Amino acid sequence: MDGTKKDWMAPHLHLGKGILPPMVLVAGDPGRVQKIANMCDSAEQLANNREYMTYKATHQGHSFAICSHGIGTAGAAICFEELIQCGAKCLIRLGTCGGLQQNIGQGDLILATAACRDDGTTKLMAPVELPAVADIEIVSTLRNICLEHAATSHLGLVLTSDLFYPSKLESNLKLFSDCGVLGVEMEVACLFMVAQLRGIKAGAICTVDGNPLQWEEGNYDPDGEVVNKGKTKMLEIGIAAACKIAADYFESGQDGNNSPSKKRKVEGQM
């Protein structure tokens, strides 16, 4: 399971160049990656180094990869960059987040259209004025599949922050909530920024595990029944999206710029 086919090896993922299928699902938790792999028709572990665990999976005749990226943008950026070097052309994050709006409850799903860049890593990549935006066609695909699965989902902005536990400085979460941001997490802005700068597609869907503005009232239950059901639904949607995107974009071939060549128009509306 050394994950290599050529002499070059990604130094952190321990994968060879070009070894991956174009479609890749990513998640912070290696345990979640293993769960996704177990939900597929077949899966082979390619590598496991540091926080980065990678599988190649097949489901309903479609191939895609699954990889863990750990917590936070710095390590996640390494993962995303090396996945691209190893063949990825579309990355979709399946993660968790805190809800920031009163109408968003535990177990709900948030489909990120863009992310506020309140992290340190992306500030070193590009000017802060450059927004971190999801690929609109990937968002549309995720939205359609959420509707097919009767999932309670919300479409909009998320905040990417480096800080999980409050400390001495005053939190800015209330400000972003007042500005209409739906949720807060720790990697999506980095994913979208790397994808934009490298010319690939990206999307993200996150399960809400509480509301950090209401932690003192007990609104945080990452391993509760409602949240776990939401996570399972998210993984089912992610796998379905990986199959559809692989079929629509990649199994019909690549264009001359190594960007996805779409076989048919994404169905549905935003």
Describe this structure in words.
With 270 residues, the protein is an alpha/beta fold. Helices cover 29% and strands 26% of the residues. The protein has a 5-stranded mixed β-barrel with strand order 5-9-8-6-10. Strand 8 (153-161), helix 4 (173-178) and strand 9 form a beta-alpha-beta unit. The longest helix is centred in the last third of the chain and has 26 residues, at 225-250.
List the helices and strands and how they pair.
Elements (H helix, E strand, L loop, with lengths): L22 E5 L2 H10 L2 E8 L2 E8 L2 E7 L4 H13 L4 E10 L9 E10 L13 E2 L2 H13 L4 E9 L11 H6 L4 E3 L2 H11 L2 E8 L16 H26 L20
Parallel strand pairs: 1-4, 1-5, 5-10, 6-8, 8-9
Antiparallel strand pairs: 2-3, 3-4, 5-9, 6-7, 6-10
Helix pairs in contact: 2-5, 3-6
